[in-house]
Amino acid sequence: MAQTIDVREYVDGRKFNSFNVMLLALSFVIMLVDGFDITVTAFAVPELIKAWNVNASLFGPVLGASLIGMLIGAPIFGFVGDRYGRKTAIVICYVVFGAFTLMAAWSASITQLAALRLLAGIGIGGLLPNIAALNAEFASRRFIATSVIVSFTGVAFGGAMPGPVAAFLVPQYGWQVLFYVGGAVPLLFALIIAFWLPESIRFLALKDRKAEMAVLVHRMDPGTVVPEGTQFVVTGENKSLPFKYLFSGELAIMTPLLWLVFALNLMVYFFLISWMPTLLSNANIPIAQAALATAVFQLGGVIGSWSIARPIDRYGMWPIAVLFFTGVPIIASIGYFGLRSSTHLMVIVFFAGFCALGVQMGINAVSAMLYPTALRSTGSGWAFGIGRVGSIVGPIFGGLLIATLTVQQLYLIAAIPFLLGAIICVFLGRMFAKRRVS
User: Fold this and answer.
1) Continuous segment of H or E residues that includes residue 28
2) Where are the alpha helices (DSSP H) in 316-375?
3) CA angle, residues 282, 283, 284, in degrees to nearest 5
4) Quick check: 117 and 96 in contact, CB under 8 A?
């Protein structure tokens, strides 16, 4: 006898099993490879300066090109994910950034390299909203934020991996090896994704793809038999929604505020990560210690990301607001207390990373919790895309001020966007509690 299954209730009622472990592990690795490609150029630049005999300042557009590409790619592939499927968009993104990263190994000029990094950035950025949507749609209401955040921490680990590759392989094979690895791995891994990664259960239900749904349910819970003619529905959601829905009702306020929070946090995060070694060196901190502080900042960020996951699942946006407020005095004091001793520096930088990256992972998860299935990738994609404006403005603004302000003054200014983000999160927290879509 035919029956109707509400996918939302089915997912909420399931136990966490080997399928969920596989999905989280695969998503983590997908994001790890993405993180490698985000930072790979920064590790190639020192070798390129020597190989091409050019001034370091000329590589500014190269380092910013992928960020601009991410700004473009996130909303474009967010739309692709909602229209054709999260898995489809993820595979395409992998092929795009893998191919253009591999081509960068044959770059003969700064202009060529910048153009290729821009195109690779489109694929890198398009991956983010679709991984967020995919993990949110397979998680029960109790673990949506946790699932999204655990998968996204792969970016932080991947971002550190070009370092060992540069240290061990570049001396023997040249700067090109960084792009060989950064391009070949995602192209090969795209085949694994196409074979192993499941399509979103809610996407399949909305598109009424019954045969694929039956296979997927059996994969999620082996032994489950789906009677022929079974209808899968997502109660209360439409099969398609226009883009203007992102600005309907309370979303007319929430969507722009979420975009602003993304931009403010990424402005601070990329200012800190981009200029920390230089600013600390200017303050007479040994370069090795400045580099270690940057690594400690990232470590604090990973721990902060994991720490905030479960509180967001329970309390919505309020833990993000707390991290924002906590981060204000911490970031502002880096230029004061952080310069007293190496111990002070490492402790305060650790907690700065804890707050900054913890906030980012939190709002990544919120962007996947706020919108309905038909517009989840699109909504997240635009938030990620607009947020990249902040990631571009932060380092540029810091570069303009670094010649005229002291280290202490720069870190005080860096805390201002965090304070604005904290205030906005208070308003969003109240609205999110009423509006939340799981």
Assistant:
1) helix 18-52
2) 318-332, 342-370
3) 90
4) no
CA 302 to each of CA 55, 69, 158, 356: distance values in angstroms, whole numbers, following the listed order: 34, 25, 12, 10
Around 404, how many Cα atoms within 13 Å sit in the side-chain half-sphere? 6
Structural domains in the chain, sorted by start: 4-206 (1.20.1250.20), 243-435 (1.20.1250.20)
DSSP H helical ranges for 85-161: 86-103, 110-138, 144-160
d(CA 360, CA 377) in angstroms, rounded, equals 17
**pTM exceeding the 0.85 threshold for the entire prediction:** yes
The upper half-sphere exposure of residue 159, i.e. CA atoms within 13 Å in the direction of its Cβ, equals 16
CB 42 within 8 A of CB 63: yes
DSSP assignments along 387-437, one per residue: HHHHHHHHHHHHHHHTTTS-HHHHHHHHHHHHHHHHHHHHHHHHHHHHH--
Overall size of the chain counted in residues: 438
Each residue's pLDDT expressed in tens, for the chain with a length of 438 residues? 568 888 888 888 888 889 999 999 999 999 999 999 988 888 888 888 888 988 877 877 887 888 899 999 999 999 999 999 999 999 999 999 999 999 999 999 999 999 999 999 999 999 999 999 999 999 998 899 999 999 999 988 888 788 788 888 888 899 999 999 999 999 999 999 999 999 999 999 998 888 898 889 889 988 777 777 788 888 878 788 889 999 998 999 999 999 999 999 999 988 887 777 667 766 777 767 776 777 788 889 899 999 999 999 998 899 999 999 999 999 998 888 767 777 888 888 899 999 999 999 999 999 999 998 899 999 999 999 999 898 888 887 777 777 788 888 888 999 999 999 999 999 998 888 776 655
Instruction: Kindly state the helix (H) or strand (E) to which residue 231 belongs, with its residue range.
Output: strand 231-233
- Find all residues with CB under 8 Å of 131, minimum gap 6, and list them: 27, 30, 31, 86, 90, 148, 151, 152
Q: Residue 232: which H helix or E strand, with range?
A: strand 231-233
Q: Which residue has the tokens 């400045």?
A: 290
Two structure tokens written together for 300: 């604090």
Closest among 345, 324, 320, 350 to 334, alpha carbons compared: 345
Opening angle at CA 156, ends 150 and 158, nearest 5:
105
- Encoding tokens for residue 305? 């990301």
- Among residues 132, 119, 118, the alpha carbon closest in space to that of 89 is found at 132
* Tokens, residue 176: 């090109």
Cα–Cα distance, 289 to 185 (Å, whole number): 32
